[in-house]
Amino acid sequence: MAYSEKVIDHYENPRNVGKMDAEDPDVGTGMVGAPACGDVMRLQIKVNEQGIIEDAKFKTYGCGSAIASSSLATEWMKGKTLDEAETIKNTQLAEELALPPVKIHCSVLAEDAIKAAVRDYKQKKGLI
Amino acid sequence: MGTPCHFALFELQPSFNLDLDQLATRYRELARGVHPDRFADASEREQRLALEQSASLNEAYQTLKNPPKRARYLLAMGGRELPLEVTVHDPEFLLQQMELREELEDLSDMDGVAAFKRRLKLAQDELNQSFAACWDDAAQRDQAERLMRRMQFLDKLTYEVRQLEERLDD
């Protein structure tokens, strides 16, 4: 199956790969996995006092589409508020990356990772 | 539907603990019986029937011999849908998986791979035992599903190990 140029670009030059201290009170961590393909994705955000996501990092073990989806997700989250970040939809990620139907679940995984990271941060801060 | 379940094809009771050698022997016996070559002179209808039987036998065998597939099949027999593509939130386990993948990435010799495989095998045996102990207890359904999903991840890890072995072998 041929990957789109955007997927290849994110796969070859993934943005924001890395790790933050999960114990840091300003860091939210989302850990999600797709058992059928064995993909594991970690997405982390660092939120400043104004409630803006000032940094985002990810690490994904999975196919090119899963790596590209999480890479793009971190790009889009930076500079957004938590509420704005939570509105990022898998369909937007899939459209931007021109994912074929069989790879849509990779973008779903990235959306779930965003939500999990935001939820982890809110829980830490006692916001939910 | 009238289609016998995978276990019934092999005259087995649904169970997670299977004797895989026995299963393989029975598969070969049954497969011989429906092999297309035996029906070369048969009517078109008989040929088609044999082909269908051969296909369902093969599918049943592939499902039953693989622990995560067998586990998923057993859980689905109860009638509850079990989507293939699903996002799991199992943070501690996923963290472990991520660490194992990182370790695997750093392995560069066969000795290291062999040691990694032994650990993986132990983890799989442990998971299989836990699943065998709870899959048919309705009260532990959630736990059984979680264990089945974990098996799927370890299955994928086994595949990655094989890929690495092939690369190191070259």
Automatic annotation (TrEMBL), chain A:
A scaffold on which IscS assembles Fe-S clusters. It is likely that Fe-S cluster coordination is flexible as the role of this complex is to build and then hand off Fe-S clusters. Belongs to the NifU family. One of its GO terms (biological process) is iron-sulfur cluster assembly. One of its GO terms (cellular component) is cytoplasm. Pfam families: NifU_N. Residues 2-125 form the NIF system FeS cluster assembly NifU N-terminal domain. This is Iron-sulfur cluster assembly scaffold protein IscU. InterPro entries: ISCU (IPR011339), NIF_FeS_clus_asmbl_NifU_N (IPR002871). GO terms for molecular function: iron ion binding; iron-sulfur cluster binding.
Automatic annotation (TrEMBL), chain B:
Keywords: Chaperone. It holds the Pfam family HSCB_C. It comes from the Bacteria. Residues 5-77 form the J domain. Interacts with HscA and stimulates its ATPase activity. Belongs to the HscB family. Co-chaperone involved in the maturation of iron-sulfur cluster-containing proteins. Seems to help targeting proteins to be folded toward HscA. This is Co-chaperone protein HscB homolog. The lineage of its organism: Bacteria, Pseudomonadati, Pseudomonadota, Gammaproteobacteria, Pseudomonadales. The gene is hscB.
